[in-house]
Amino acid sequence: MNIIVFGATGRTGNCIVDLALAQGHTVTAFARDPKSFSSPQSGLSIVRGDVLHAIPVEQAIKGHDAVLSALGGRTLDPSTVISEGTRHIIQGMEKHDVRRIVVILASGIISGTIAPMFTNINAEHRRILEMLKQSELEWIAACPPYIKDYPFTGNYILHTDQIPTDRMQISKFDLADFMLGQLNSDAYLQQAVGIVN
Fold first, then answer.
1. Residue 19 — very low, low, confident or very high, per pLDDT cuts 50/70/90?
2. What average pLDDT does the structure give for the chain?
3. Where are the beta strands (DSSP E) in 58-187?
4. pLDDT tens-place string over residues 34-62
5. What percentage of the chain exceeds 70 in pLDDT?
6. Number of domains in the chain
7. DSSP 3-state percent helix, strand, coil across the chain (nearest 5)
8. To 5 degrees, how large is the angle CA 69–CA 51–CA 72?
9. Which residue range forms the structural domain that includes residue 17?
10. 20 to 30 A Cα–Cα from 158, which one of 117, 171, 178, 180?
């Protein structure tokens, strides 16, 4: 499958890119700083751009089969950077008839309770969820709690209602594995899915 990854230079985004290539997908990494990919890899193309600029996002999406978004914020302050970027991604997908998108959203959108420090992030991710619901895209939202640098396990628990309070972490490799698995599966279509180890 020919996929494009937004947030490709982040720690989970990098895992998605590497695992997608290992699975035989053709991958485009959309990145503000292409130098993050220091060495050429077979099957990988890199497009320089900023998700806050709609036209480059739309142009980059054209010709792909699916989108994976690992966009993340770098602040706990109020921000609409991720939602604005996601809006441009959705617009580009609709313009070029790309149907499938798998995104990472905060577990707070389904957990019911959140720590006060994450209030702004949770609000931003709820805005994204509403945009996805209002679109006609085939979307799946992976909702992890704390993403850790643990090795791949292949063992993770999925919840479509609420994150269990005794499990509050997920390996970034397992998260990437789940997201790529949704490219050809409708099991969690148009659902926000909690994922924990």
1. very high
2. 92
3. 66-69, 100-104, 138-143, 146-148, 157-159, 169-171
4. 777 777 789 999 999 999 999 999 999 99
5. 97
6. 1
7. 40, 25, 40
8. 45
9. 2-196
10. 117
CATH number of the domain within which 26 lies: 3.40.50.720
Report the amino acid identity of residue 112.
Answer: G
pLDDT at 164: 66
Q: What is the DSSP letter of 51?
A: T
Question: How does DSSP classify residue 9?
Answer: T
Q: Extract the tokens encoding 130.
A: 């509403």
Average pLDDT in the 162-187 region?
Answer: 90
- Answer yes or no: are the C-beta atoms of 62 and 96 closer than 8 Å: yes
Contacts of 12 (CB under 8 A, 6+ apart): 70, 72, 104, 147, 172, 175, 176
Structure tokens at 140: 């799946």
